[in-house]
Design brief:
The complex is a heterodimer of chains A (228) and B (428). With 228 residues, chain A is an all-alpha fold. Helix content of chain A is 64%, strand content 1%. Chain A starts with 8 loop residues before the first strand and ends with a helix. Helix content of chain B is 37%, strand content 23%. Chain B has 16 helices and 15 strands. In chain B, the strands form 3 sheets. A 7-stranded mixed beta sheet of chain B has the order 10-9-11-13-14-8-15. The chains are: A mainly alpha (228), B alpha+beta (428). At the A-B interface, strand 1 of A face strand 8, helix 13, helix 15 and strand 15 of B. Strand 1 of chain A pairs parallel with strand 15 of chain B, so a sheet runs across the interface.
């Protein structure tokens, strides 16, 4: 029995050619004896949670130890508050996503920024500083927008990597100038002292990438040398 | 007693590093007998081979600096075969055993994680397993030699050695080359693998290759290249935008260097043609493949390629890096080198067996799994006057297989086709 399209000989009893799916008409054929069983393997639903469990236990133990040491030494939460905040941030950013099969960057990036903001608010309150609203809050907010935007664009917009990365680098350059601006209005430091250089570097790199987006040969060369 | 353990050989280092949650590099060798297999006897045969082939009864362990293979105390149980070959070998399974022995009706199959051995090592183990099974069943007695080993003797050190280390050149060959065009398709859900076996008369295939003045491997590589070139021409009508088409051929280094190791000892050559400069006929492609294969598979050339793998291992800073850093580095290397090569065409050649054993086999097969970055692979073995060309894929589209086997038929080589597809799927 042969396939009329491919010309290959077929197993007796098959209903169509495995190569081109052309139906086989052979009313006299017996049911084919199949060389493979029906049994499908069990679906592996394997997830290695040992890292998540290990780090959770480590974080809880470290936090408990710090609380005990703080209260035994001072009777109240002294420097331990900063360390606990640091552990909390580490847990939220590095350990919590490990519990999820597909941790979503769109959720975890803003969440991490909110946590950083809250931590800085705590530090501000604890040290009696007056820099949260005019310095930390806007910078964390802009950083959140930039990082989440970059992540979402890279994830959902295909084939525009040089433009996205180029635009991002230019925005980071602008971000450094804003940082100096907020530093200036909060702490009274000199304006355009350092940010002009970082903005220049990031801006130039960003513009280079944006240009590369328009020149296919340059794009290919960059991909070749900076693959990851 | 302390468990015996083995360092991974040079070629094996990369396999644990590039394994993913749904993929790892596994291959399969199988022998179909002329009568149904007795599972209990096969289990005894498996147990009997353990002392003689210690590197096959191991589990994968992670040290601080390197992965290693450790003697497994978990008994290797003979299992029933599945509806498709090379089902996913999970990390949990690798931590127990890196090899499977499967049985279905008349067929005995061995599936190996590639870190244990390569196709030649796998077929040597399978041959000995089948010989032991037949000895237990019918008292078949075969003289020890190659490939049949005396199961009572201790494994010699030369079978356990990493032969790469002995045969590296002083100067490493550059890995740089142009990337190959890659086939793509619709991924099958849940890791399903389609296997299409093309069966040709070995004599006819050999004669046709001889008429063209090339080897069987070059003939098959040329035919594969022609099929892929046609598919690329349809996908990219603009010739300037086409990319080289490459066929990756593993070369067994044992013959080149006289090694008897049962660990990995093969390297791949990427044979390519560039469609931007014009079209090729089948004869031209086969001759080009033959020329590249002959020029590449020399001891000197291979020693340079071995050195490229061995030298990074000898850098102190890299040796001292924790295994997770090495994993990341090797993954990067694989992503880059994986992009260079194309479809694998692994030809084990004629399976040379003692006549008594050969007569008891209906057929032998060799299947390599799809690569992480390439959906199709092709593996070939000849036994009992027939050549079995196994084409595996993890995508729905069978266009490559259709073109490849049709070209072989057009070249005057009759092909019989079998597949693991179920009858109900045929009508779907």
């Amino acid at each position: 029995m042969y396939c009329v399209k491919c010309g290959v000989r077929l197993q007796e009893g098959v209903e169509s050619c495995p190569l081109c799916q052309t139906p086989v008409w052979n009313p006299d054929a017996l049911q084919a004896k199949h060389a493979w069983p029906d049994q499908l393997p069990e679906q592996h639903n394997e997830r290695d949670l040992s890292g998540a469990v290990g780090f959770t236990v480590l974080s809880v133990v470290a936090a408990a130890a710090i609380l005990v040491v703080n209260f035994v030494l001072y009777g109240y939460l002294d420097w331990g508050g900063y360390v606990l905040g640091g552990i909390g941030l580490f847990y939220l950013m590095a350990v919590l996503p490990r519990w999820f099969r597909h941790p979503r960057g769109e959720v975890f990036i803003p969440l991490s920024h909110v946590a950083v903001g809250l931590f800085l608010l705590y530090v501000n309150g604890k040290t009696g500083g007056n820099w949260f609203l005019s310095f930390a809050f806007p910078l964390v907010g802009i950083s959140c927008l930039l990082s989440t935007g970059l992540f979402c664009l890279l994830k959902y917009v295909k084939g525009a990597k040089p433009y996205i990365l180029g635009g991002y680098l230019v925005a980071v350059g602008g971000f450094s100038m804003l940082t100096e601006f907020f530093e200036h209005i909060t702490f009274g430091t000199r304006m355009f002292h350092w940010s002009i250089y970082t903005a220049g570097c990031f801006g130039a790199a960003g513009l280079f990438l944006l240009t590369a987006g328009f020149i296919p040969r340059l794009r290919v060369a960059l991909r070749k040398y900076f693959f990851f | 007693m302390a468990r015996r353990w083995f360092r991974l050989d040079t070629a094996a280092l990369i396999f644990p590093a590039i394994a993913r949650r749904d993929w790892c590099n596994v291959f399969r060798v199988s022998a179909t007998l002329r009568e149904p297999v007795d599972t209990a006897l096969l289990q005894r045969a498996v147990d009997d081979t353990k002392a003689r082939f210690p590197t096959f009864f191991v589990r994968l362990r992670k040290g601080f600096f390197w992965y290693y293979l450790e003697e497994s105390r978990e008994p290797l149980r003979v299992r029933q075969d599945y509806a498709y070959p090379l089902t996913y070998m999970s990390s949990r399974e690798l931590k127990r055993n890196c090899m499977r022995v499967l049985v279905y009706e008349n067929r005995i199959a061995v599936e190996c994680f590639h870190a244990l051995t390569d196709g030649r090592g796998g077929i040597t183990y399978l041959t000995n397993l089948v010989a032991r099974y037949l000895a237990l069943k019918d008292g078949l007695s075969l003289p020890a030699g190659d490939p049949i080993r005396d199961l009572r003797e201790k494994p010699p050190a030369e079978e356990l050695e990493d032969s790469f280390l002995k045969n590296a050149a002083e100067v490493a060959m550059s890995r740089r080359e142009e990337a190959s065009w890659r086939l793509r398709g619709t991924r099958e859900p849940r890791g399903y693998r389609h296997l299409i076996t093309g069966i040709a008369e070995a004599e006819v295939l050999r004669n046709r290759a001889r008429e063209m003045g090339v080897s069987v491997t070059s003939l098959l590589a040329g035919t594969l290249a022609l099929s892929i070139l046609e598919m690329q021409a349809e996908a990219r009508p603009n010739r300037k935008r086409r990319r080289p088409v490459k066929i990756t051929i593993p070369v067994d280094l044992r013959r080149l260097y006289g090694s008897r190791t049962l660990r990995n000892f093969s390297l791949v050559l990427n044979l390519g043609v560039d469609p931007r400069y014009g079209d090729y006929t089948l004869e031209e492609l086969c001759r080009s493949m033959e020329h590249q294969l002959r020029a590449g598979a020399t001891p000197q050339n291979m020693a340079g390629m071995i050195a490229a793998n061995v030298q990074p291992q000898q850098v102190l800073a890299l040796r001292l890096a924790p295994v997770w850093i090495k994993n990341a580095v090797m993954d990067l290397v694989y992503r880059r080198s994986g992009e260079m090569g194309g479809i694998n065409l692994s030809n084990l050649g004629l399976l040379k067996l003692p006549a008594e054993l050969d007569a008891r086999l209906e057929r032998a097969e060799f299947v390599i799994g799809p690569q992480r970055t390439y959906p199709n692979n092709c593996s070939v073995i000849s036994q009992g006057g027939r050549t079995y060309i196994n084409m595996i894929r993890n995508i729905r589209e069978s266009e490559l297989e259709r073109r490849f086997f049709s070209h072989l038929v057009e070249a005057g080589i009759p092909i019989a086709i079998e597949s693991n597809r179920r009858m109900d799927e045929c009508t779907a």
